[in-house]
Specification:
The structure holds 2 protein chains of 2 kinds.
Chain A (H helix, E strand, L loop, with lengths): L1 H45 L2 H16 L2 H11 L9 H26 L3 H9 L4 H31 L11 H12 L2 H30 L9
Helix pairs in contact in A: 1-2, 1-4, 1-6, 1-7, 1-8, 2-4, 3-4, 4-6, 5-6, 6-8, 7-8
Chain B lengths: L8 H4 L1 E12 L2 E12 L3 E5 L6 H8 L7 E6 L2 E2 L5 H9 L1 E4 L11 H11 L5 H14 L15 H13 L5 E5 L7 H16 L3 E5 L3 H7 L2 E6 L2 E6 L1 H6 L4 H14 L4
Parallel strand pairs in B: 3-8, 3-9, 6-7, 7-8
Antiparallel strand pairs in B: 1-2, 1-4, 4-5, 9-10
Helix pairs in contact in B: 4-5, 4-6, 5-6, 6-7
The chains are: A mainly alpha, B alpha/beta.
The complex binds adenosine-5'-diphosphate and magnesium ion (MG).
């Protein structure tokens, strides 16, 4: 009984507060990350030599360095060169750049899998390269990239918990504070686990729905 | 045929002139100086063994493959393919049909046709849709407007791709073995669409092994082997009385393979 009261009075309000911050972190990071991923993925396949090189270096860097190190760099490192980011901004920046690098891998692979014949056909019709990419290639490539990118979004939900390392108190941060004050580690972190599970399940359903919705007639049986 | 001996100069001039096209990949020379001109309303058929360079030559004509050397004139105007805007405008005037159709998989039949009208010709959506439907009607597929490529047979896909090219009002069409990827029973429907084009005076260069079709309709047959044109002439001459030994060999082989029927 006492446990239940504690859950209702202490844990849930704090966790809902943290959840709100988490969602505020995840949504813009997911959006920016995806945009970066599409742009960088497209550049890596269809860009000029210089753009390709820069994009490759970006991916190598942001996939190669642990996310915590990246977050520390943005939050604790940048002030040394006179740039001060709030914990929230530093987190969104870190998450966007990191997930953009991963998304770009999925996008690149999907773009490369589009048959060359369709590109020839578009060129033969007089499409400019930019329009060919925007109108013929990306709509097909993004459909194929969706399962991979969806996976990355699920990861993002979970690694958003790293924001508390740069003092952005989101779901995990709230839980940590609560637990260390009350010493009810098991109860608190069990509840947090359930929260993340629900978040991930909701995102999974949405992605599944999107995939169904975007399936092309005649391709259903390929799944 | 009507007013014989009274043909205007513009009709005598080639609508498309291709001079001395050369292309090499690495050390291998794939095209060793190929020239071809065609007048308005003519059908020229390219034949020759696989690997002889027919596809490469056709793709050089609209610069899908950039030739190392060679010049092209369309209606007397020299094409500067290094000039992007000019290249895009030129390609709009030269339609291309591929062996494996190359429809856009994410678009329905009618969208496949209207997408280039909207995004290349900058037409409004409504007239683009009307034009696309008219072209589908012309190839007998009005009822399939909302089918996606994966829901169409090979013959239907090729007819949509022809409709897509026609919608751009090309001055010349290049056809690269348009029936080679089709099951035998589907070849007829595509050839009959192409026959209609011939009857309507479309200018075409077509690589094909359909001997009966070529004998009946081509103005000239061009035999290409190993990156060169070995022989050219009227169908009857090339198919039954070629000068060159290689041409004779090849023609008797494909006549055997693809038969007399068209
Ligand atoms: N992109 C390429 N790179 C290297 N070799 C090529 C390329 N495209 C075509 N070739 C070669 O050029 C030759 C001519 O090919 P192609 O034009 O397709 O002949 P055809 O259409 O008459 O069968 C072939 O030997 C082919 O291997
Ligand atoms: Mg070929």
């Amino acid at each position: 009984m006492e446990e239940l009261l504690f859950l209702q009075r202490e844990i849930l309000p704090a966790l809902f507060k943290g959840l709100k911050v988490s969602i505020l972190l995840i949504v813009p990071s997911a959006f920016c990350g995806l945009c970066i991923g599409i742009l960088v993925g497209a550049l890596r396949v269809y860009g000029g030599a210089a753009a390709r090189r820069i994009a490759d270096i970006y991916v190598a860097l942001f996939r190669g360095v642990p996310l915590v190190v990246q977050l520390f760099t943005w939050y604790f490192g940048l002030p040394h060169v006179g740039i001060y980011l709030s914990p929230f901004t530093a987190s969104v920046l870190g998450f966007s750049l990191c997930s953009g690098a991963y998304h770009s891998e999925y996008v690149r692979g999907a773009l490369l899998s589009i048959k060359k014949g369709q590109l020839l056909a578009a060129q033969a019709l007089g499409f400019t390269k930019l329009r060919m990419v925007m109108i013929v290639i990306l709509p097909q490539g993004l459909r194929r990239a969706l399962p991979g990118c969806g996976n990355e979004l699920i990861y993002l939900i979970k690694y958003s918990s790293l924001a508390y390392m740069v003092t952005c108190i989101e779901l995990t941060g709230e839980a940590k504070i609560l637990a260390s004050h009350s010493f009810k580690y098991l109860e608190v972190f069990f509840a947090v686990g359930v929260f993340y599970l629900v978040l991930v399940s909701v995102a999974g359903r949405l992605l599944h729905y999107l995939e169904e919705h975007l399936t092309l007639p005649g391709f259903e049986h390929h799944r | 045929m009507e007013s014989a001996g009274f043909v205007s100069i513009s009709e005598m001039e080639p609508i498309l002139r291709v001079e001395n096209v050369r292309k090499r990949y690495g050390k291998r020379e794939i095209l060793k100086g190929v020239s071809l001109s065609i007048r308005r309303g003519e059908l020229k058929v390219l034949i020759g063994p696989s690997g002889g360079g027919k596809s490469t030559f056709l793709q050089c004509i609209n610069y899908l493959v950039t030739p190392d050397e060679g010049d092209i004139w369309l209606e007397g105007r020299h094409i500067d393919h290094t000039h992007k805007r000019e290249l895009y405008r030129y390609r709009q005037q030269v339609g291309m049909i591929f062996q494996d159709f190359n429809l856009f998989d994410h678009l329905s039949a009618v969208q496949n046709i209207e997408v280039s009208l909207i995004h290349v010709k900058r037409m409004d959506r409504k007239p683009a849709r009307e034009r696309a439907m008219a072209e589908l009607e012309r190839v007998g597929l009005r009822g399939h407007a909302d089918h996606y490529p994966a829901q169409l047979s090979g013959g239907q896909k090729q007819r949509v791709s022809i409709a897509r090219a026609l919608a751009m009002d090309p001055k010349v069409m290049l056809l690269d073995e348009p029936t080679s990827a089709l099951d035998p029973e589907l070849i007829g429907e595509v050839l009959s669409v192409i026959k209609d084009l011939v009857a309507n005076g479309m200018t075409m260069i077509m690589a094909t092994h359909q001997i009966g079709f070529s004998r009946a309709l081509a103005d000239e047959i061009v035999f290409m082997e190993d990156g060169r044109i070995l022989e050219r002439g009227p169908p009857l001459k090339i198919l039954s009385d070629a000068k060159c030994e290689r041409t004779r060999e090849f023609c008797s082989k494909i006549t055997e393979l693809y038969g007399e029927a068209d």
